[in-house]
Amino acid sequence: MRDRKYWLYAILALVGGVFGGALSGHLFPREAEAAAHAARELKAEKFILVDHDGNERGVIEVNRAGVAGVSLDDQTGRQRGEFRVSTDGGAAIGFYDQNGAKRLIVGETPNGRNGVAIYGTNGRQMAAFTVADDNASSVTLYDPINGRARVGLGVSSAGEPALVLFDQNGRDRAEMHVTANSKPGLALADESGKTIAGLPVQEQSQPPQQ
Questions:
Q1: By CB distance 3.0 to 4.6 Å, which of 83, 108, 179, 206 could disulfide with 114?
Q2: pTM score, two decimals?
Q3: How many separate domains does the chain show?
């Protein structure tokens, strides 16, 4: 049971937070295609997009850190969408609410994990869906009050599904899984992480030969 618990930690809830924290926002304006017909080539480190009244509505630039990005604002000047590609190869699209807080990020991290991170009105990450470069996938749901993972659902690269439930302190309290050879299991843990109950399925012994 102890080895199973460490395996579940590896593929489930904790990876979602890493994914959401590794990304920032992103996007490309449709007007760029029309502008391409006006000039064969145009080079600059930064372009500022304005509306008919001269108000800034977006920026296209490569900053001093080497990050290429497009940022778009609403009519009040608040950033609402962004597209960025970092120097390490990570890329993401982000969407923000009217207060400038992150609400949705879609992208890929440099280590090959890709997915979606969803944020609540309080700025905390509420849910994440990710797929790793080995095709292991996971869904994580977070506590709206403290931001800790509370539910993790995933499938390993070997095709083993598992469900993990965490308490309000982020401790693993219940796990359910099915191994690659179709053997189900269940484990319960106390607040210190110690396994207190488990239901592994045992092979039934054959009756003795007469």
A1: 108
A2: 0.70
A3: 2
